[in-house]
Amino acid sequence: MSLTxxxxxxxxxVLFSGGQDSTACLAWALERYGHVETxxxxxxxxHRVELDQRLVVLDAIRRQFPDWSSRLGDDHLLExxxxxxxxxTALTSTAAISVHANGLPNTFVPGxxxxxxxxxxxxxxxxxxxxxVGGMCETDYSGYPDCRRETLDAVxxxxxxxxxxxxxxxxxxxxxxKAQTWALAMELGGPALVAITVEDTHTCYLGDxxxxxxxxxxxxxxxxxxxxxxxxxxxxxxxxxHTDGGEA
Length: 248
Ligand code: ZN
Fold this sequence. Notes:
The protein is of the alpha/beta class.
């Protein structure tokens, strides 16, 4: 097992949706690994804008971060319309977004990350990558059972066994809240990466890219926008508290 391989000699494959979280993960991987590739999934999302913004973000990173650009390799887009066919959720149909009695939003696609990670694992095998990087997070999405570290460890174990590949799954955002994700973007890429995150990453469930806020573009009222806005405001609040109060 080469689980302790030198990161500089390691290829990582980042699950990259073009959202805030996966953009932070991409920056984290580019700062750490010698070669980084990206994979996205077209599963019949209600809004093509998500897939369009992936390419906008990648282009902005290539232009503004020469050091990272030299390590940023191919982008892959896998079409998995079957996921839409077996789901009946707000992300892939015109149903309204709401929260079920069990606490899971109806945007939840059952086991979606299991499918994504398995496909990414197979692609990693093909591409010589030994690390998958994903933006799964227990802090803000505690209702998603396929975002839990325990689930991811089990998936990594399955992929290692099933492909005889020393594959690890890294989740740099696992214990971060949304404010800390903004802070991570600042730490990794400074104001330029924060600006890319604000301007180019897409979060809004309704696909709105016309209404502008401090934290980016979106309707401002869907659960995804609310989460992103709250994180931004909390991050700004912490910065202000730190500036005003010294040791915050
Ligand atoms: Zn929205």
